[in-house]
């Protein structure tokens, strides 16, 4: 197996080990044992525990941002796409956080150690919003004194409470969806052409 | 001194002890020692460590929300009052977090243990925004399909990234003030009468 070992296989095994042992205890040796290979084979793909952790974070975060590309690329009116994008991201996070709080906390802890990966993820998300807004502006569906890039960043900031794991403990209360809906209403009213 | 001991004196001593030892290590006995009284005298005011912690949290959070009442009560146009309110709260939090990160983290940790106190504080802040918005609506300076109460809650959610201690680690970067300014622009455009 060692010869055919792919980075993807290492990633899957690493996620499995991290879930079971938690990020503090999991080691590269555990991942190698899980795969039945030497730890040297794992290091060939990921030269350090930090590199492996970054790859796991990236993999996890891409599972959240990749499906949103479909929303960005859809032909629906831009205001509706923004609302769908925000609802979808927030719902995915809440589902994970409420269904398996421990796994969610584990991923949050792993990602917290990969600041550059998280920053890149956040930039990707804000950029998705900016692209919807740029498209909406060019179609006359949206308008602002801000540029599309600035407006995308602003909308991303405005919905952070509904998406950022730091607030997961507050998502269990009633009315979260309505609260998000109201933020969307104010924000989308703020981007309406006059 | 024990006879004249006020709740306020206990609070001041408790804050001092918490700063020095941290919330995990500080005990009611430490507070009593600081005051030169028996721990029974402290318990007369605060029947448990949790009650003392809640009081310290409340005292700290009131120091943040009390000065904002002036902004709410000012005669400036409502959109300007909202912007000032948001800037003032965010600036106060950032100043504390950047000037004395350890003390800020200590307060955050204390407050995290006092969830009801934090919830009441957040309700107070959202209510301040709602009152500005209600006033602005009655003066024809603001409008929305939402009620003033819903809109206040929405604006509060929209600026959480700039005020919530969970994001303090990200406030050191460049452009935080501009980013807040842009969120205010979108939100205030969303509350403009049409």
From TrEMBL, chains A, B:
InterPro entries, A to Z: DNA-bd_HTH_TetR-type_CS, Homeodomain-like_sf, HTH-type_TetR-like_transc_reg, HTH_TetR, Tet_transcr_reg_TetR-rel_C_sf, TetR_C_27
Pfam families: TetR_C_27 (PF17935), TetR_N (PF00440)
Keyword hit for Plastid: no
SUPFAM superfamilies in UniProt: Homeodomain-like, Tetracyclin repressor-like, C-terminal domain
Annotated keywords: DNA-binding, Transcription, Transcription regulation
DNA-binding region: 27-46
Name of the protein described by the UniProt record: TetR family transcriptional regulator
Species whose genome carries this gene: Oryzihumus leptocrescens
């Amino acid at each position: 197996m060692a010869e055919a070992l792919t980075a993807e296989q290492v990633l899957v095994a690493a996620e499995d080990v991290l879930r079971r042992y938690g990020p503090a205890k999991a080691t590269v040796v555990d991942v190698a044992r899980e795969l039945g290979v030497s730890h040297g084979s794992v290091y060939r793909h990921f030269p350090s525990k930090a590199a492996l952790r970054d790859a796991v974070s990236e993999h996890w975060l891409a599972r959240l941002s990749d499906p949103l590309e479909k929303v960005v690329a859809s032909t629906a009116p831009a205001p509706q796409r923004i609302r769908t994008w925000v609802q979808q991201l927030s719902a995915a996070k809440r589902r994970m956080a409420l269904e398996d709080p421990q796994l969610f906390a584990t991923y949050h802890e792993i990602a917290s150690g990969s600041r550059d990966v998280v920053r890149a993820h956040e930039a990707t998300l804000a950029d998705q919003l900016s692209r919807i807004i740029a498209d909406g502006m060019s179609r006359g569906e949206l308008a602002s004194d801000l540029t599309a890039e600035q407006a995308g960043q602003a909308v991303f900031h405005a919905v952070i409470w509904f998406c950022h794991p730091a607030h997961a403990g507050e998502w269990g209360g009633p009315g979260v969806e309505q609260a998000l809906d109201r933020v969307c209403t104010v924000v989308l009213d703020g981007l309406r052409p006059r």
